Each structure stands twice: as structure tokens, then as C-alpha cells.
Amino acid sequence: MKFAYRFSNLLGAVYRQGNLNFSKDGNSVISPVGNRISVFDLKNNTSETLPISTTKNITCVGVSPDGNVAIVVDEDGAALLVSLITRAVLHHFHFHKPVSSLRFSPDGRKFVVTKGNVALMYHAPGKHREFNAFVLDKSYYGPYDETTCIDWTDDSKCFVVGSKDMSTWVFGAERWSNLIYYSLGGHKDVIVGCFFEKDSLDLYTVSQDGTLCVWESDTQLDGLILAKSKDKDRTTLTPGHEDQEVEEGEVIRGKPEVPKDEKRKTVRYKQISKHFFNKDGDFNNLTAAAFHKSSHILVTGFASGIFHLHELPEFNLIHSLSLSDQRISSVAINSSGDWIGFGCSGKGQLLVWEWQSESYVFKQQGHFNNMASLAYSPDGQYIVTGGDDGKVKVWNSNSGLCFVTFTEHTSSVTSVAFTSSGFVIVSASLDGTVRAFDLHRYRNFRTLTSPHPAQFSTLAVDVSGELVSAGAQDSFEIFLWSMQTGRLLEVLGGHESPVSCLCFSPVQSVLASASWDKTIRLWDMMDSWQVKETLHLTSDALSVAYRPDGQQLAVATLNGEISFWNPHTAAQTSSVSGRHDLETGRKDTDKVTAKQLAKGKSFTSLCYSADGESVLAGGLSKFVCIYNIKEQMLVKKFEISSNLSFDAMEEFLDRRKMTEFGSLALVDDGEGEDVHISLPGVRRGDMSSRHFRPEIRVSSLRFSPTGRSWAATTTEGLLIYSLDGSMVFDPYDLDLDVTPVSIRQQLRRQEWAAAIILAFRLNEKALKQEVLETVPHDQISVICASLPDIYVEKLLGFVAACLENSGHLQFYMMWAQNLLMLHGQKLKNRSAAILPTLQALQKSIQRHVDNLSKLCDFNMYNIRYAAALSRQRGLKRTAEDDDRVSEDMSEASSDAADIMML
């Protein structure tokens, strides 16, 4: 098996911090999630995480006006230039300081970055071919404190910058003789947003205390006068920089010296009105603002979770709603002005609201705390996760979106599982309950409890879905319930330490339980729940997993080893030592090196691959390892994260961060976007809030039943890794005669079966697809009957893969139907070996059934509406014809009466 798995998607987290952006067409939201970027398609209800990552959490994202590139900046000021078309990193840059905001000019030629109290204007990359993508044009000084926000005029002539010193500064992007800079006051708190009016120099400024100032300019945009060359020197007050280009660009500082004999009319501003958001005395800090110039809609978000919609400049309130009790961190409006995006970093929420219809277009929220466990549905279409926040969430593996959340648990969810039917989810929690959820009606239909209070740390469901078992971490007992009746069947005792993991055999009613007492016990469910075998280990057992065929057992122990056992003979067949493969990082509080720490580390989660040839292992580390069982060797290591904002990521301490008092990382400066913990019941002004950096870890691993992907619940979120088939060349039975030329010659001779066999021997995806789609549909049954058995399985797997994305639905369905009908008995005899292929085929067919059923329902109502409309028009036309006929009859009768009178 070739492990060409690549990072595919990030689920379980939709927003962390930073600013939201809409795509150019307004149909997608670009959201920063940790050190990655996720794109949510609101039209098709899909999500995609770009295969790029920064070294730390992202704080600022700027998207070009044409929507082709984006600039992503992390907490330290390291920037990436990313192509949104190819999903590739084009350039690396470092601003050397944290960046608060970034905005492209409307014409796409420049972009402005604010860091500290300076605004830097760069030439935008992509307009010209240059070696350096980031070329500094000018540096603008003026504010005395950190700058917070930026906005451009529609013609890209000027831009405005807001600051924490309560002032707003208007700068000219070019050398205007009547506008070098202009400073505006009038606020008593930090400037949150500053916005130009459409095609004007008029301004709106919003401050944190809920104040809106409306500024009017006495000059239009076309009234800006371009400075002459002699004025160029006067705007630069830094000595020695008058007539030369420097690396740092030009510095705009201070007021230009204008000769007395030369009088010019400079741009002036005056405040024409001032409005307040908090008239009722309910003081809430204004935290985010956005303005849509065409519709004159101002959206403001507050720390209490409330947002307002106002129409400017009259300041008419349109809507006032509450999203949650958490702070709104970011607000964005799409290009048409219909949809408003909100990001709440406290709860990890991302919402898109359509203000005209007052409805949610998109509403997603990840797990508030760490995810503890996950499970795939039998067809691989859904993933269920349980978290420390007590929620059970179900995700669609194709779209990457959560479609149902169960909140019945009152404490951390420690384990989740699907039943064999795929429509029931079972979860165990520390609140002492095991709950079963129905995916048809989205309800908790069964709650299983123990005779005495117990905290359940692990869970397992048997193949039939009838038996549910859960292990307690305080009483060392295993509880067994009937799903059908909800009755407690038995309490299994015998372990002398907490039960760490439970696993049912996939082929028979045998339960394997792992415990810290250095034993694995196999319980026979058919024989009065007696202990069938006891496997004695050399160290505490942390995880246990059955091979898909039930003929092998893998056990992870505290000494860092993975041992493999035969469950029938209770004999150990092999083992793998993986302690040094974890490569754990060093935490800020650790006194020893990472190499010494690795001696005490171990794997805490195990799962077999779909074919049973390999095992996937993870633990308190940023690495996930795949081992080949037969060869007893490490095949590949996956680094699940490179985010240095997490703890235990670096192997060595940075000497630059060491002082005589210890590491600088241990100093809590009260800043940053770390996780905040406040006292219970305190909603505002908590002086005892603490900060901590989450430690990177892998809590659970699962392989998809289709074998095409695997998932891991980590500190970063739910990571999906899938096969990239186009990057792998894996020929089968290759010789000199198997070439693309010979395959196409067979096609020209209409030797369809021979061409298919040669194509699968060469094993190039594009060539196989070309050969398959060249075959006439009336020859499919004949070809399927003449194929050798080995190629039947390969062709069935290829058809299952093509069905996922191909538009030729009926064509590939004919291939699948003929292969299954003609070779059904042979495939049934090898069902265990080809089970991943059959499940992949089932998943593809089920997805198309769901999509087509929705489309057909939608079209059915459209057709009904069109038919009713046509009938209504026909009746109207008939009525008009009847009126016209009656008018003609009356005219004819009147003419006849006139003739008779004559």
C-alpha cells in the first residue's frame, strides 16, 4: 500500500482570530483558522482548507480586488503571498513586527500595511514581473500610538488610518499638493473603523466607546492637485533623502513648507454630526465595524455579542440582534451588500447573515475545547466527534461542514462510535451516561446509566449494534447494556486498574479490554461474558485495536511499544518500538531536553488501515506514525502541525528568549490570542483572567472504511489526510510492451478488453480514464464478462474513485452494475479483502443519490411553478380572447341594427 496521503481538509474549527474576507463574487468566506486559511463556499455548502500554513497563528489577511492573490500575516509579522487559484505560496516576506491591518487599493496597484504607529505602502505584487514581490513605496508617520484600521478611496488616490491614540489620519497615496496628510480628532477612545464615502473624501469614523463621527470634506476627489517636481523635495523632511531612492522607501512626515508667495487651497474637514450607539446606558465596547459604500450600510459588532445595522449618514437603525454572549471579533460585508459575515473568536463561531431576509446563510461552530475522539460512519461519508465541551458533532466528510450538534451531555465526551447501520451514534461521557442518537430524527433516543455513579472513559459497540460497553476510570469495571431495551446486562469486573480502551472484534462477539494493570482481557459475549483469554503485557496498556478481519490485535503500552497478538492463541506475533519516532517537543516549563522527555512518551491512540497491513499511531506529539506490521518498520511520519503558537512544538529552547529569570515564554504579558480562562460567572472586567498556550497532541485516530483517507483529532482541529492518486506512479506487471502508444493502438483496433488490461498494468489515472470512457456503452457487459478476476477488482476500485467526481454518472454506474452482477459470487468470496473498495463505491453512490434527490425535489417545485404560471397565462389569454370576441359580436350586432334602420 502506498502512503501518498496529503493534507486534505481541516474540520472542527471554522474561525479562531483575525479578519474575515469575502471572495470577489461574494459567494465564499475566507476565514483564518489558527495558522491555516479555510474557504467556505456559501453557494455549494462546501469547505476547503488551503494546503499552506504559517509559523504562528494568523492575525491579518488581505485579498486583492481581483481575488487572485492574498497576503497572510501571522502574529510575528511573517507574511505569505498566496495564490487563491493554484493554492500555492508565491513569496515569503517578514515585516519584523506584528501587523494590525492590511488593505489593497481598489485598483490593485498598491497595498498598505499598518505596524506599530507607521503605515507602509507597498507596490502590489503581480502587476509587473519583478524579482522582489514586496517593494516599499512610502512610509507614513503621524499617529503616536498603534494603528488599527485602513480604508481607501474608490479611485485609490488617498487612504485613511485609524489609531489607538484616538486620532484618524488621511494620507495621499500620490504627491498631492493640497493633501499631504490630515489629522482628525473628536473621539475619546480607540478608533475601530474608518471609512470613506463612495466616490468622495467624506469620512465616517467609529471608536471603541460606541461613537460615530461624520466628517465632510470641502474638496472632491477630482479636486486633488498633483504636486510638481519642486514640491516633491518639500514633502520629504528626512535629510539626505530628497532626490534618491532608498531601500525603505520615502518617508512622509510632518507638514510641507509652502512658500508665502504661493497660496493654495488645502483640503479641509469639518465634523457635521456625531452619533452614539449606547444611548440606553448599556455600555458595551464596540469591537468590529464594516461599511458597504454602495448601500450606505454600517455594521458594528460589540463585546456582548450584539450587532447593529445602520444606514448612513442619517444613522437610521435597521436591525439590532444578538449572536451570542461572546465578543464579535470580525465583521465583513460581501460585494453586493446582501451578506454579512461575523467571526466570534471566543466560541469559534462563523456566521453569515442575510440582513434583508433576516436569515442565516451559514452558521458553523467548532468545538470550544479540545476534541477527544472521532469515528467514521460505515460508508465513510460522515465523521462524528466528541469534545471536552460536552458536544457531539457530526460532519459531512465531503463538504467538511457540521450538520447536527447534540448537546445533551453535561460533561466532557470521552468516546464516540457508529453502529453498523450507520444511523445511530453512541457516545460516552464523564457525566456518567452513555447516550445513543438517531441520525434520522436527530434526537437522543436512549440514555444508558450505571447502578452507581461512574465516569466513562471509553466505549465500544459490537458488530450487530445490539451490545454497548463502556469502561469506568474510577471503579475499574466494564458495563454492558442492550441497545434494544436499554437494560444493563452485566457488570464485568476483574481489572485492577482503570480501563483505558475497549474494542469489539469485527467478526465475532468478543470484547477486548485494555487496562493499566498490564493486561488485555478478551471477554466472550456468547458464553456468559466469561474471560476467554488474558494477555499479559510488560507495561500499562493504553490502547487496543482489532484488525478489520479480526485475526490480529494491536496494543499500545506505556513504554512506547506497539505489540501485535493473535487473539485465538493468545501469543504475541511481533512488536514495534516507537518511542523515538514520536519526537516530542519541549514545553516552556520543562527542565530537561526533548530527547530525555521522549523516553517517557508513548502512543495513546491506534487504528488499523482499511486493508489491515499497516497501523496508524499517535500520542502526545505533533507526529503521526504509520508502521508496516509485516516488516515491523516505520513507513512514514506525518507532521500534523507546524504552528509555533502551540506549546511543545520546538525541540530546543531559543537562547534569545532566555533571561536570568528564565524563559520569556513564561512571562504573561496579558496580550496575544492565547486561550483565556476567566472565573465562573464573570462576564466583563475579570482581572483574574489567565492565559495558557495549548499543548499539541493527537487524541484519536481513525482510518476511513474506504481506505482513501484517515482523520485525527488534534489540538489544531480535526485533520483529514487523503490519497493524492495523481502524484503516485504504481505500475502493475509492467514490461516493455506496456506503453501509452500500444494502449492507444489497441483502442484504434477496438480491442477494448486488451486496452483496459494494458492501461491497468501501466496504472496511470488519466490513461485509464481515457480508455474507459472510449469504450461504447453497449460493449460494457461483454468486456466485463471477459476480464480476468484480478482486473475486475482493480476496475471496480477505479470506477468507485471516478464516481466521486465524474459527471458521467450513468456511464460509470453501468460499469459498476455489470461488474457486480457478472462477478458477484467471486467478489463475495473475497469480501473481506475488497471491503474498502465496496465501501468507497457505496459512499460515492450514496452521495450522488443525496445530491440528485435534492436537485430533483428542487426542480419538481420549479416545474410545478412554471406549469401553474403557464396555465394562469393561458387562462388570462383565453379570457382576453373571449372579451375580444364578445366586443366583435357586439360591434357586428350594432352594425346590423344600423343597416336595418337604414
UniProtKB/TrEMBL annotation:
Keywords: Nucleus, Repeat, WD repeat. The keyword Repeat applies. SMART domains: WD40. Residues 891-902 have a biased composition (Low complexity). WD repeats lie at residues 184-216, 364-405, 406-447, 492-533. The keyword Nucleus applies. Residues 763-866 form the Small-subunit processome Utp12 domain. GO terms for biological process: maturation of SSU-rRNA from tricistronic rRNA transcript (SSU-rRNA, 5.8S rRNA, LSU-rRNA); ribosomal small subunit assembly. It is found in: Nucleus, Nucleolus. Gene3D superfamilies: YVTN repeat-like/Quinoprotein amine dehydrogenase. Belongs to the WD repeat PWP2 family. This is Periodic tryptophan protein 2-like protein. It comes from Takifugu flavidus.
